[in-house]
Amino acid sequence: MKRFPCLSLCLLIALSVTLMVAGTAAAAHGPTPSKQVGILLVAFGSSEASARVSFENIDRRVKAAHPDVPIRWAYTSAIIRAKLAKQGQVLDSPEVALARMRDEGFTHVAIQSLHTIAGEEFHDLRRTVGAFQMMGGMQRILLGAPLLATQEDMARAVEAILATLPRERKADEAVVLMGHGTPHPANAFYAALMFQVQRKDPNVFIGCVEGYPDIHEVQALLTERKIRKVYLMPFMSVAGDHAKNDMTGDDEDSWKSVLTRAGFACQAILKGTAEYDVFVDIWVDHLGGALGHF
Ligand code: CO
C-alpha cells in the first residue's frame, strides 16, 4: 500500500524534470524554423563523361516528380571525387553535402541512394545519415533505399530488364548483364535477381565484375544452354569505366574477350540502367516514399 504514494511522487518528479528540460530546450533554440524541404541524391559517382547522361536523366526525373524541391548531389566514392577535382569539377561527399544543407537552413532532407544494392557504400551512407540525425540541427533526415531493396523492387527490376533488352535479339540469343558485385552479403541480390528474371526469360544472365557469379560462372551457364550469341549490357546506373573496360574492353580478361575466346559472338550495348526511365522510376518512387513522411 505504501508503494503507491511513492510511485506517484516519482512520476511527478520525472514529469517536472521532463517539463524543465523541454522548457530549457525551447528557450535555447527559440521558435522552430520554417519548414524547408530538400533532396540529396547520392551516387557512387563516375569520372567518365559517358556517365553524365545517366545522372542527368535521374536529375530530370526527380525534378519532374518534385518541381518545387531543391536538389543537391553527392558522390560516395572518394577516389572519383579526387579524380574529378583534378579536372576542376568539385563534388561533395554526403557528409559535406548534408553539413552544407544544414547550414543553408534545410529542416527536412530526403536522401536518395542511387546505388543498385544496399552494399558497403549504402551502409556507409546510412551511418552518415545516422550521425546527422543524432547531431540535431535539422528536424528530419530520411534515407531512401537503393534500386533493389524489397521484393516489389525485384519484380519491378525484372520488368525493367525485360523492357530494355535489345529489340533485335532473338530468343535463343543471350543477354549478359554486368553487375558490380561486392564482398558485402548484399551481393546475393544479383543471383536472386537472375533467378527471377530467368523465370520470364531463361536466356538473360546476371554476373558481377567484383562478386558472384563471375564471368566464368556465367560462361558455364551459357555453354550449358548452348548459346551462340551474347549481348553484353551493364547492370549499373552508368555505362562508365567497368562497362567500357571490364565488360567490352580489348584486354584479354574483359568479358567480351573471355566470351569471344570461348566461341560466343559478342555485342555490347553501352547504356547504364539510369538511362532508362523504367529503372530510374524505382529510385524516384523510393525518394517519394521518404518525402511522403515530411
Ligand atoms: Co568498381
Describe what you observe in this structure.
The chain is α/β, with parallel strands linked by helices. It has 2 domains: 5-146 and 276-291, Rossmann fold; 165-270, Rossmann fold (3-Layer(aba) Sandwich), CATH 3.40.50. Helix content is 47%, strand content 15%. The protein has 11 helices and 8 strands. A 4-stranded parallel sheet has the order 2-1-3-4, with helices on both faces. A 4-stranded parallel sheet has the order 6-5-7-8. Helix 5 links the parallel strand 3 (108-113) and strand 4. Helix 2 (52-65) crosses helix 11 (277-291) and helix 4 (94-103) runs parallel beside helix 5 (120-135). The longest helix has 27 residues, at 3-29. The two termini are 47 Å apart. The relative contact order is 0.14. The model is unreliable at 1-5 and 7-27 (pLDDT under 50). Cobalt (II) ion binds next to loops.
